Structure of Outer membrane protein beta-barrel domain-containing protein:
Amino acid sequence: MVAQTSNKKGGLWGIVKDTEEEIPLEQVSVRLLAAKDSALVSFATSDSIGKFRIRNLNPGRYIVSLSFLGYEAVYKNVSITSQNRWVNLGTVTMNPSGILLKEAVIVGKVPEIVTKEDTIEYNADSYKTRPNAVVEDLLKKLPGVEVDSDGKITAGGKEIKKILVDGKEFFTNDPKVASKNLPVDIVDKLQVIDRKSDLARLTGVDDGEDEKVINLTIKKGMKKGWFGSAEGGYGTQNRYLFNGMLNRMVNESQFSLLTNGNNTNNMGVGDFGSGRYSGGFGGAGGGINTSWFAGTNFNAGKSDKFRVGGDVSLAFSDQDSWNKSQRQNLFADSTSYDNSEQRNRTKSHNLGVNFRMHWELDSLSTIEFMPNFSYNKSSYHASNESATLAGNAERDSVNSTLGRTSGDGHSFQASGRLTVNRKFKRKKGRQLSINFGYDINRTDEDGMNYSINNLYRLGRKDTVDQTTQNKVWGGTYRATVSYIEPIFKSSFLTFSYEYKYNFNNADRFAYDLMNEAKIDSAYSNSFRNTFQSQRAGVNFKTVKEKYIYSIGVNVDPSRSESENLIDTARTVPSRTVVNVSPNLFFIYRMNKRNNLRFDYRGRTRQPSISQLQPVSNITDPLRIRTGNPNLSPSYENNMQLRFNSFKPETQQSIMAYMSGGFTTNSIVNKTTYNSETGGQTTMPVNVNGVWNMSASFMYNTPLRNKKFQINSFTNLGYNNNIGFVTLKKDGDSQRNVSRTFNVRESAGITYRSDWFDIGLRGNYYYSRTGNSLPGQNSQDIMTYGGSFDGSLHLPCSIDIGTNFDYSGNKGYSSGYDKNQMLWNAQASWQFLKGKNATLMFKIYDILQQRSSISRSVTGNYIQDMEYNTLTSYCMLQFSYRFNAMGGKRNSDVKQDSRPNRHKEGYRMGPPPGGSGRGYKIRY
């Protein structure tokens, strides 16, 4: 029996950290040597959390050698025996070698992109940005990442809702604060991560709430001490900006103070009021924005003990927006056209407060508490002009509207989550979690609505003149219990149950000023709504070295009811619905750098209260919207397949992604058309036949000499949408299938050297939409363009940079096919001791050709829209940065005399334990 046991192989593992800052060290070289002759037995590298593992070791005595660039080598003696086959080295700390930067040499190029199991990791220094650039400037250069004019970030087609800093919350659920305020030069790596929700990661039970987040890892030298910056600028057209940042970091604790203000469309925080009001709050998109922001964020404590964090932010925004649009309404036997123009001025004040607590009472028990609060006060004034034209050759006028609206409102929201998690000592893997959550909100607004509506075919003019009072208040309470039971060595059963209670109350009263200010019942309603849902689920999960899979099913019964206090005929009877939602998850690890992942998830979507209520919103009498109490919940089926590959020896990175989905009982809008007035009434209905599929491919690799880097991002998509349109002659509706195929390609090449950087990129987008209705031509649009980005690094710390973007389009409505050449340039000079100060002059949109257009395609209409946007201006900026990390000022650090050598994405420093002679790193 002893002999049999001795033949079993063992292994060792541990975590490696920096001695001074206690941070994990990634890609540390771990060599296992035979004790008798120092022969190499095995090899490993540490991962992103500093963890390393070596398996399949025979009993015997070994030497573990750990080495890393810029650190002193560490040696550990270990013994593998039949009684102690697995050895835990615990936390191994490494000391910096203490070699001054002036003795450093270039030894190898850091990979630009690394693809991992659920992460795409970009090396920040590989992407050249202008002096004083913020994280958003870096995001705009990354393949597969897009940032729109409002600052919304999408990666792989999915919106980023959160940005973390070193894995910790940074201004909860508002990625704009990090993207528009944090400087690029503190960022080491930017990671785009697909992950489960906070609750799922804590409890180990999948709640179906996946999210895509960005994590910023901070450079090693910026994690202990003080650093900050101050910047101000003024330019033509009275453009101005100012911002300041102060950071204090000590190991795992961090404190940040941020402030900024500008009228250059760089709103550094989200608007909490967006979507809370029923009127014209939030503007029409685009526009010119003036904003101010001040906030503080902190994280303190130990990650494995007691940790607290939070943030407070104050913000103001003033948006002046204008847009015009042309919509082609699709009918079975003809078309009509809606032309409109709108001007909107919105002012918004915001307060946000968030708190986070993570407390590990012991090695088995954990408590998390996360309360949040936000308050908004907004006002708006809008004017609009619109007309409906017949689809004949003469484009006869059917109606026209001239109107104005205004309103003032305030709202608040308070939410929170308390989670208690308990592991069981007697059986490893057994776990019980209890979660409580709440979300309460209230919105109050007063408004005015005035419009003159000309109905030319009836020879009639209608006037609406009223004031409105809107109050909406409600909340959600939920409780969840989950339990994990290990049944085999690497397999688990999970059980979960959730109960959720939601109440939503709405009062809207309209007073007709043309009729003695009496309440107008056609425009008024008072609803009391409740929605109760339960979810019971069971999952089976297996975790192996090469693969992980999980399969399960959820049962979701729900009950909803709605009561109208003004008109009982509008009451929605109570209804009970039961849905079954399966899920499947599978990961296959081919090796450390190649993996394949598949997900399938079914999910029920309940119709909203506004979609169910049989109440007509006739704020615009020519475009009426009403609810449908007969709606059924929709059921979404979504599948994803992803392959990641990274080759260290060539630094080649590949990501291939496919997704698809179909929806049963999909909720779409059904529009009926009144040929006499030109008015439209829209109501949601259930349909089947809505589905989509897409495929993406990303490729990145350096060329042989490493100074050239090429990358490509390709996307193909197909959408099958259903809509209902009206036969103008008899008013009957007919089903229309809208099929859209699109292809997108973005490819680029960069060259980086000591004295200059050049980047070239081309992009192409094509979309073709066909409709099943007879007589409807296919709609083809095309956008194309390219960009040039160059920087010249001159002596005396002078940088000159320029970027040129060309974009063109075809297939839009008349007046919307526009070509655009956007040319920006800047020159900067860094001076003072340590190059702490920067003076920069920049010119935005030199050719004055900035424009903003978009197209929306549904089964009912095709709409082209154009917004106002920021035009050409010049600005002179001054900034000062200070760095007192580790007790040293940045002026004490020796600077490399070669321009931007330290920004080129190269590893620098002496060989581990060496004297400073150069050597090549092999990945």
In short: The chain is about 5% helix and 65% strand. Confidence is low (pLDDT under 50) at residues 1-6, 99-108, 887-923. The longest strand covers residues 397-423. The longest helix spans residues 175-181.
